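Our consortium's second objective concerns turning raw sequence data into structural hypotheses that experimental partners can test. To show how far this objective has progressed, the report includes one record in full. It was chosen at random from the queue rather than selected for favorable results. The single chain below, 336 residues long, was entered without modification.
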Amino acid sequence: MLTQSLLRWSLRSARAVKAKAMSSQTLSSLFYDYDNVGEFSDLFEHEKMLADSVRVDTYAAAIRRHIKAGDVVIDLGTGTGILAILAARQGATVYAIDHSDFINIAEQIAKNNGVSNIQFLKVNSRDFACPEKVDYILHEQIGDDLFDENMIFNLLDLKQRAMKDTGTIFPGRFELFLEPVALTRAYRVPFIWETSIQGIDYGFIKNHPGIEKYKRASYASRYVDQAAFDHFLSEPAPVLSVDLNSIKGPDSIATRFSVSRRVIHAGRMEGLYLFFRAVFDEECHFDTAPQHTHTSWGNRLLRCAHHDYAAGDTISFQVEIGDIRFVDTWSCTFNH
């Protein structure tokens, strides 16, 4: 009993320490850096990204359209070095930085392909002192939830310290979508208190005083397979648009907003489907919408109590973002 009590106390203490740390920009960045090094030292993660034709082809087209001989470029989080190599082939001077040991492999890939105008540097971007101002900060600091790879803080930090006044974060424009969605029946997972199976009613659990301790931090959301998507109930529109080339700091980004959607396709709403669009220019952009070509990014469903809507109905909800990097700190409130 003493051992079990000590274990429970240790787990509670660890969660409290992590929650406190995540409230600090510096400490939460350190947590992210630690996780990030492990993830992007995993060869499969790189293989998955290289196999993503939407990702690779759009970046390649944008680089060919914009980066030219004589440009100076930082490739932030270079990974396998593919973006650095594409920029270098345009005649740019490239500083490819990454804090993972995998950068050694990236350097060998460049040499093996006859590309020499890249400096590969194993360093955290926040510790990188670029010897010259750059024309482009090239990156793919884009997480499944758009902002969850510390994109905003890392890019705005480099922008302030290393980019010319005429320079460009590439890509720098992003749109976040949270769309009311109907899922195919096989992928529906209702809250337990909405469930009645084989004559067993679970409804009382909703207000049970002891149920909260069984909800993990991520309880209010889950990843869904693209095959789970049936249809959006309304016409998708971004709930948040961010242009990192025009804002000065994270405080410029809205964290509370109200959304209203007119239902054009009747159905049962299972939650809000999160996807994003990344924009290089008006012709070069991609998105992770489930009805479009599959990408290497995952899609998250922000869960809600299911609700049936008819065409012409209005779906209204409020979104409040705690920390934009962590969806677990976001909340959505519906006006049913």
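The partners drew two points from this record. Confidence is low (pLDDT under 50) at residues 1-17. The first helix runs from residue 2 to 22. Both points have been shared with the crystallography group to help prioritize constructs.
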